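Entry 14. Structure prediction run on the chain below.
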Amino acid sequence: MSEAVISHAGSLPARLLRLYGGLALYGAGIGLQIESGLGNDPWDAFHQGLAVRTGLSIGTMIIAVGALVMLLWIPLRQRPGLGTVSNVVFLGLFADAAIFLLPTPAHWTLSWLYLALAVVSIALATALYISAGMGPGPRDGIMTGLARLGLSVRLARFLIEVTVLAAGWLLGGTVGVGTVVFAVAIGPLTQLFSRWFPLR
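Output returned:
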């Protein structure tokens, strides 16, 4: 790869495009998975459960939880970036827009198509977002903050996601086969897409 291409890929406009394109795609993925009705990832099961209990939209809960989670960054000495703040503000808006625009599947084949598109979209969105190099998402910051205190990243992520998944299920969020599919597929797919968009 030439130096000109590398420079262009690392330019501010290109990084902003990756950041906000990634957030928009991630929001679309959230909407697809929720509308599939087959089961959400841990955090979105939690967001949906809160939405069920409060009567507010899922996107509103994504924004509110993201803002509250950032407060936990203070004792963990984590530093937010533009990507962190943008994640809090825009991800919920994009998710609500997707949920509003997407028709609810009337047949199980469309539900499974939604689920497959959701996982692929979120994996690609994650690769785009991370490659922008503008700060971790608020929920990822908790994981890395705990890792700095001595926990392994794997254990920190496991503890966080099991906790929010259980809370989401108890609150009324949808947990099912889609939750398992997401857990199994998201890592390998994100790694695959990260080859196209190297981490900055």
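Residues 1-8 have pLDDT under 50 and may be disordered.
Filed with the rest of this week's runs.
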